[in-house]
């Protein structure tokens, strides 16, 4: 049977600002990426989200981003590989403190937003991020855009990697995601998005905005928790995958 992980970015509230439907979404997915305080989240939110994940038996990952609360980590910054190493290591350690305090263990690391997209194309940044993950814990799984520099960097250093595909994003012909400032970057038609996800998982193909089929390796599918219809969307995607004889389970569960 084909297997795939279903992940969601959670823990993105901050202080008095509430974002997402974390409690309702978490039972729909198998892995969660928890914001670590740079692009979103704060210590209280991180702790609550970790406890929520553990209570629901959902695998936990750190979601380190750029230090940009105002821009939600989606604006590119001119950072060095050393900057990337330091900020990723710092954020992994911060989240893991809460995970360990609750008797849990971390499964993976997935960079967020602009940091994720920069590392998908820039080899030196990708290598710095992979090194930070490896130095912290070589047993962690590195999530990255399928076919990206980040996935290759993780494999070179000896990490287990998981190629990620996106349920609600369109692709360019080079395999990159369509930038959010361009028209049609986000798929709003649920039927189209669900059909795309099933095809990606079963066939390893997705059609780019230019009409070209590109090959992908879908180990994990991302659902964005800040989408207005995220809860319905997550349920529909999981049902569609399972009805297509696809086993939905955390990437860290072998066998």
UniProtKB/TrEMBL annotation:
Record carries keyword Transcription regulation: no
InterPro entries xrefs: Glyco_hydro/deAcase_b/a-brl, LamB/YcsF/PxpA-like
Top-level taxon of the source organism: Bacteria
EC numbers, comma separated: 3.5.2.9
GO MF terms, alphabetically ordered: 5-oxoprolinase (ATP-hydrolyzing) activity; ATP binding
Record's keyword terms, sorted: ATP-binding, Hydrolase, Nucleotide-binding
GO biological process: one example: carbohydrate metabolic process
Catalytic reactions of this protein: 5-oxo-L-proline + ATP + 2 H2O = L-glutamate + ADP + phosphate + H(+)
Keyword Hydrolase on entry: yes
Quaternary structure, from the entry: Forms a complex composed of PxpA, PxpB and PxpC.
Main function: Catalyzes the cleavage of 5-oxoproline to form L-glutamate coupled to the hydrolysis of ATP to ADP and inorganic phosphate.
Family membership noted in the UniProt record: Belongs to the LamB/PxpA family.
Protein name: 5-oxoprolinase subunit A
Species, as recorded: Paenibacillus abyssi
């Amino acid at each position: 049977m084909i297997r795939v992980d279903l992940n969601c970015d959670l823990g993105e509230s901050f202080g008095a600002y509430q974002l997402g439907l974390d409690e309702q979404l978490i039972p729909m997915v198998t892995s969660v990426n928890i914001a670590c305080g740079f692009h979103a989240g704060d210590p209280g939110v991180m702790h609550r989200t970790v406890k929520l994940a553990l209570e629901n038996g959902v695998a936990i990952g750190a979601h380190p981003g750029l230090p940009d609360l105002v821009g939600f980590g989606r604006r590119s910054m001119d950072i060095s590989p050393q900057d990337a190493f330091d900020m990723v290591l710092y954020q992994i350690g911060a989240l893991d403190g809460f995970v360990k305090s609750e008797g849990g263990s971390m499964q993976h690391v997935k960079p967020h937003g602009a940091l994720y997209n920069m590392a998908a194309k820039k080899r030196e940044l990708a290598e710095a991020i992979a090194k930070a993950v490896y130095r912290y814990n070589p047993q962690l799984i590195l999530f990255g855009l399928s076919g990206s520099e980040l996935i290759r960097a993780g494999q070179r250093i000896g990490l287990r990697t998981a190629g990620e595909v996106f349920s609600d994003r369109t692709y360019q012909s080079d395999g990159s995601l369509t930038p959010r400032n361009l028209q049609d970057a986000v798929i709003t038609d649920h039927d189209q998005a669900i059909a795309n996800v099933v095809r990606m998982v079963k066939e390893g193909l997705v059609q780019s905005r230019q009409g070209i089929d590109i090959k992908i390796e879908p180990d994990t599918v991302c659902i964005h928790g800040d989408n207005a219809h995220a809860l319905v969307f997550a349920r529909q995607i999981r049902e569609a995958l399972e009805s297509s004889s696809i086993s939905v389970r955390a990437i860290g569960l072998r066998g």
